[in-house]
């Protein structure tokens, strides 16, 4: 028996015909295409080579620094492309990835990710955000800031760094915003990735964005310490964030792994204050962050897995959780909502959104802008409608 012909990947298809084929009767559920708002493609799949014995954030950072001399441009390209294609296979057509940049590693990571971005541009939208090493302030930070500018001149899309790891997080925040304004690009900061309630640089970021009338997109990723504040502080900060138009990215995978190890009694989840942020009208997206590396040894490269964790850790309903890995991150990235009728979709073998998130079925068909970019689509899916049938 001959195998059924398949539509080649990269084919522009008749979306209406494909939607007539992907019906519940055939076992398909059609969803808007998914998005990954916070990845580290340059670190993906290092778990076996670069262990983190302590299991916390600083342990992961130290492990990566120690292993860095063994990481080459070709190695980054191979692992990053493998991770991006895995995300694509699972229905992800937009990815924001952070790229390590520092005096020590130079442009190696950002150059590799820019290469992957260009290689895959016909399949997936990839944004590259600089993740600048510390320190970025004071006399010692001048060379780091030079590296940031160099990365932006090479073609990186956004400015990023870690104010909570700096000696002066306020000055670091101001510096990142100033350089971003200089280059007319957005900002995505690793913000307050700690359970220390005294570190709340999101407060300053939200005020400073308004004060300087920063005209570009701003995202604050992690925001773990916000969850350690009382209700009144959470509400106040959330309202400031909403007024500033800042997007917040919750990262349950990695924060569940790294955070809370010193809180064995009433261990916190490490996930930001999603309820307060959403109540204030903040656009809250959710990402996986790290993929099988020292910061997170597991993960399947599947936004539906992230959605499941948002249900369990942030108490979202299934449709709300789906939005955090589709509509919300696309809004953050300045992309239009994924519209299946326009050819931005992922079809999964499921009956409901809850069913899709719960089981994460591997059999998926992915369209991006009317082009088949992943999955096995039978050629019969492109047959024109029967002229005798009634069309709505």
From TrEMBL:
Pfam families reported in the protein's UniProt record: Amidohydro_3
Presence of the UniProt keyword Chloroplast in the record: no
Hydrolase as UniProt keyword: yes
Record's keyword terms, sorted: Hydrolase, Metal-binding
The Amidohydrolase domain, residue ranges: 150-371
Gene3D superfamilies named in the record: Metal-dependent hydrolases, Urease, subunit C, domain 1
GO molecular function: hydrolase activity, acting on carbon-nitrogen (but not peptide) bonds, in cyclic amidines; metal ion binding
PANTHER family: BLL3847 PROTEIN (PTHR32027:SF9), CYTOSINE DEAMINASE (PTHR32027)
Protein name in the entry: Unannotated protein
Species of the source: freshwater metagenome
Highest classification ranks of the organism: unclassified sequences, metagenomes, ecological metagenomes
